[in-house]
């Protein structure tokens, strides 16, 4: 009978392409390299993505010993058996003994942690909100956990339905120094989340798609890893219950979906530290997730007003004229930005002679009830002998250095070689606070003080215009790890558009860590210090807008969806982006209205103004060299369109502000998909071209060129026409 069971399982694995788990996810797969890993080679006629090299045995090589079940969780030891095939080949020997700990944190949340119990490894220094001791009770827990052996796996079952929501008893499990891999069968094919990437639909296509995650200065594009890093997903089970899963890991990674349905994680370091929340409703999932990582920031009321920006303002007179033209057109408008144009040679904390009148302009518009937000980049030029921000940072040792050295790693941003502050260092936090404060209150020339109300932090992936460093990187193993995740530039290595992975950073406890491990935390580490100094100097709530994010960034900032393009296909992509960031616990989001790159056309920009009026963060912004696209750059009909739709937005601000409060206090979503309110209606599970503000307002925008009607779905409920 044992032989019979084994034979049946192997036959299923061999004959069903849906059950193929990739044994050669790294580059260079061939029949020879595949068979040397002990796996099967068979090219599938079913198209791209189906692995040609796959496991024909369920064994992942790890056996389980010393299992201990308690009321608060499960613990066990895992031991590797060298006879198992493995995806890492012979490049990365597995760690022979691992520790498994499952903790029942609450009735609806648990943690599954796998780590090297004998040798300390890097773990993500992002604190989560966990109870001091596990609070789940056996009577009211929503889940059961079973540890499986031969092969090792963890199975999590929802008690109310019997649905297995997590099942890792699969051959892919691997745990080595720079390659960690684990697969799980999924409860259904309805999966949402993971980012930051531009996804073509809100619900993931599970037909053999791989998505890389690694923060990068990368405008949105298909299969291109972009600014943020969010290894979190939500799944709708077939009975309409929902759960969410976070992998707390900050190393470069990718995830592969397959139609089994199953999901495979591959990461390049750290440990495997999963947090599962059991909902059971989609809205409950987000509330439980934000309880874990932190509730979304509460923006000030003025930050819900319409906002204008442009990279390419010629001088402060152009900005002043824009303000007057918007007032004359009576178009609602509350916040004005300036991009890097206001700086002297793109140097943070400086003022260009062309913008010498900006401080007075800011004071004027504030006296009229408006607000002002400038941009700041983290990179600090090293080419200026009299540049005070660099000189003080150099003296105070705030910059990222080469390992075991005081020598700074020189990146490049715009025209200058640049140093990057290490926002984990207390010295860097004090330095940043002083520099930002002196931009607001200039002690050397008070007339040059810029009385801003919020801060926009950009290029904080961190970005560099040379690969790695001026002069190149020095550590091949870190910049080109043995397994290179499927990123948008897989052949370019991890240092593409950023700094070298061997850069040394110093954590608050004084321990050092390589940039390789904390790269995806760079924007996260800058965000809270920026909000802290903003609130300290303005004595108001303020708002920070950040480009790079990580789980819990939403506690301190909003996020715009990056440098998009003036194209019709970007309209629904912006809705998908907002819905995903709602899942990630970042409520204050929106795209650049009318597009950042390229010239926007009249109809596109008009439709985008209508859609963008319902972004929580509603800002029209575009790039240098493109024509103006603010509402007063067009004809009277366009001004009428903008005025009318923004008046609708402003009439709804009390409702929007209340939703922001509910998000801040209870973790509810502001922008939400229809299935958050109508999860029993399976038609809503696919909808992403409509969205809701909270539980009561449905927005069905025009998203197609030339359209005069919209195909909108109305779930069964009592609906009212807003306009009547």
UniProtKB/TrEMBL annotation:
<dbReference type="InterPro" id="IPR044913">
    <property type="entry name" value="P_trefoil_dom_sf"/>
</dbReference>
<dbReference type="Pfam" id="PF13802">
    <property type="entry name" value="Gal_mutarotas_2"/>
</dbReference>
<keyword id="KW-0326">Glycosidase</keyword>
<dbReference type="GO" id="GO:0005975">
    <property type="term" value="P:carbohydrate metabolic process"/>
</dbReference>
<dbReference type="InterPro" id="IPR030459">
    <property type="entry name" value="Glyco_hydro_31_CS"/>
</dbReference>
<dbReference type="InterPro" id="IPR030458">
    <property type="entry name" value="Glyco_hydro_31_AS"/>
</dbReference>
<dbReference type="GO" id="GO:0030246">
    <property type="term" value="F:carbohydrate binding"/>
</dbReference>
<keyword id="KW-0472">Membrane</keyword>
<dbReference type="InterPro" id="IPR011013">
    <property type="entry name" value="Gal_mutarotase_sf_dom"/>
</dbReference>
<keyword id="KW-0732">Signal</keyword>
<dbReference type="InterPro" id="IPR025887">
    <property type="entry name" value="Glyco_hydro_31_N_dom"/>
</dbReference>
<protein>
    <recommendedName>
        <fullName>alpha-glucosidase</fullName>
        <ecNumber>3.2.1.20</ecNumber>
    </recommendedName>
</protein>
<dbReference type="InterPro" id="IPR013780">
    <property type="entry name" value="Glyco_hydro_b"/>
</dbReference>
<dbReference type="GO" id="GO:0016020">
    <property type="term" value="C:membrane"/>
</dbReference>
<comment type="similarity">
    <text>Belongs to the glycosyl hydrolase 31 family.</text>
</comment>
<feature type="domain" description="P-type">
    <location>
        <begin position="11"/>
        <end position="57"/>
    </location>
</feature>
<keyword id="KW-1015">Disulfide bond</keyword>
<dbReference type="Pfam" id="PF00088">
    <property type="entry name" value="Trefoil"/>
</dbReference>
<dbReference type="InterPro" id="IPR048395">
    <property type="entry name" value="Glyco_hydro_31_C"/>
</dbReference>
<keyword id="KW-0325">Glycoprotein</keyword>
<dbReference type="InterPro" id="IPR000322">
    <property type="entry name" value="Glyco_hydro_31_TIM"/>
</dbReference>
<dbReference type="GO" id="GO:0004558">
    <property type="term" value="F:alpha-1,4-glucosidase activity"/>
</dbReference>
<dbReference type="Pfam" id="PF01055">
    <property type="entry name" value="Glyco_hydro_31_2nd"/>
</dbReference>
<dbReference type="InterPro" id="IPR017853">
    <property type="entry name" value="GH"/>
</dbReference>
<keyword id="KW-0378">Hydrolase</keyword>
<dbReference type="Pfam" id="PF21365">
    <property type="entry name" value="Glyco_hydro_31_3rd"/>
</dbReference>
<dbReference type="InterPro" id="IPR000519">
    <property type="entry name" value="P_trefoil_dom"/>
</dbReference>
């Amino acid at each position: 009978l044992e032989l019979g069971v084994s034979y049946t399982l192997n036959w299923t694995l061999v004959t069903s392409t849906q059950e193929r788990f990739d044994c050669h996810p790294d580059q260079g797969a061939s029949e020879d390299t595949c068979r040397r890993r002990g796996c099967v080679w068979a090219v599938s006629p079913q198209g791209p993505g189906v692995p040609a090299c796959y496991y024909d045995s369920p064994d992942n090589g790890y056996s389980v010993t010393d299992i201990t079940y308690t009321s608060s969780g499960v613990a066990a030891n895992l031991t590797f058996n060298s006879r198992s095939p493995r995806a890492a080949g012979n490049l990365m020997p597995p760690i022979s003994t691992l520790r498994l700990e499952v903790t029942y944190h609450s009735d609806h949340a648990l943690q599954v942690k796998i780590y090297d119990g004998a040798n300390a490894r890097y773990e993500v220094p992002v604190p989560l909100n966990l109870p001091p001791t596990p609070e789940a009770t056996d009577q009211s827990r929503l889940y059961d956990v079973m540890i499986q052996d031969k092969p090792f796996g963890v199975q999590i079952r929802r008690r109310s339905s019997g649905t297995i929501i997590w099942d890792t008893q699969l051959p892919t499990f691997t745990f080595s120094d720079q390659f960690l891999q684990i697969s799980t069968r999924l409860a259904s094919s309805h999966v949402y989340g993971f980012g930051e990437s531009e996804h073509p639909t809100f619900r993931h296509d599970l037909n053999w798609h791989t998505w890389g995650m690694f923060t990068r200065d990368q405008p949105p594009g298909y299969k291109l890893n972009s600014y943020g890093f969010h290894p979190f997903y939500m799944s709708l089970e077939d009975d309409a219950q929902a759960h969410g899963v976070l992998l707390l890991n900050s190393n470069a990674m990718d995830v592969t979906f397959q139609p089994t349905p199953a999901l495979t994680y591959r990461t390049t370091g750290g440990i495997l530290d999963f947090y599962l929340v059991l909902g059971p409703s989609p809205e409950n999932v987000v509330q439980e997730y934000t309880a874990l990582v932190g509730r979304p920031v509460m923006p000030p009321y003025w930050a819900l007003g319409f906002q204008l920006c442009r990279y390419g303002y010629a001088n402060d007179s152009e900005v002043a004229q824009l303000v007057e033209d918007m007032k004359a057109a009576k178009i609602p408008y509350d916040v004005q930005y300036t991009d890097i144009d206001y700086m002297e040679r793109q140097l943070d904390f400086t003022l260009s002679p062309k913008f010498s009148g900006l401080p007075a302009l800011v004071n004027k518009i504030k006296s009229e009830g408006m607000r002002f937000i400038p941009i700041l980049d983290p990179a600090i030029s090293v080419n200026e002998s009299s540049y005070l921000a660099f000189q003080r940072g150099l003296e105070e040792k705030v910059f990222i250095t080469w390992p075991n050295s005081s020598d700074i790693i020189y990146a490049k941003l715009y025209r200058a070689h640049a140093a990057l502050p290490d926002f984990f260092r207390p010295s860097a936090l004090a330095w940043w606070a002083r520099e930002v404060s002196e931009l607001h209150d200039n002690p050397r020339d008070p007339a040059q003080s810029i009385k801003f109300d919020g801060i926009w932090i950009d290029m904080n992936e961190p970005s560099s215009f040379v690969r790695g460093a001026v002069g190149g990187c020095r550590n091949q193993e870190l910049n080109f790890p043995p397994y290179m995740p499927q990123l948008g530039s897989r052949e370019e290595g991890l240092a593409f558009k950023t700094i070298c992975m061997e850069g040394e950073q110093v954590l608050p406890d004084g321990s050092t860590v390589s940039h390789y491990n904390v790269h995806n935390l760079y924007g996260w580490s800058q965000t809270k210090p920026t909000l802290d100094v903003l609130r300290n100097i303005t004595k108001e709530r303020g708002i920070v807008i950040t480009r790079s994010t990580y789980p819990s960034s939403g506690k301190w900032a909003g996020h715009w969806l990056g440098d998009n393009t003036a194209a019709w296909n970007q309209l629904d992509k912006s809705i998908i982006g907002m819905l995903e960031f709602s899942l990630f616990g970042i409520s204050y989001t929106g795209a650049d209205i009318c597009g950042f790159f390229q010239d926007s056309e009249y109809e596109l920009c008009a439709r985008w103004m209508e859609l963008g009026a319902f972004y929580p963060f509603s800002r029209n912004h575009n790039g240098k060299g493109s024509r103006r696209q603010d509402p007063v750059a067009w004809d009277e009909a366009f001004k009428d369109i903008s005025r009318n739709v923004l008046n609708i937005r402003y009439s709804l601000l009390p409702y929007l502000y209340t939703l922001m409060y509910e998000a801040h206090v209870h973790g509810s979503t502001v922008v939400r998909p229809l299935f958050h309110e109508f999860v029993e209606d399976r038609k809503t599970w696919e909808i992403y071209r409509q969205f809701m503000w909270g539980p009561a307002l449905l927005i069905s925008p025009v998203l197609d060129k030339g359209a005069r009607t919209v195909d909108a779905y109305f779930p069964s409920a009592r609906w009212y026409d807003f306009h009547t």
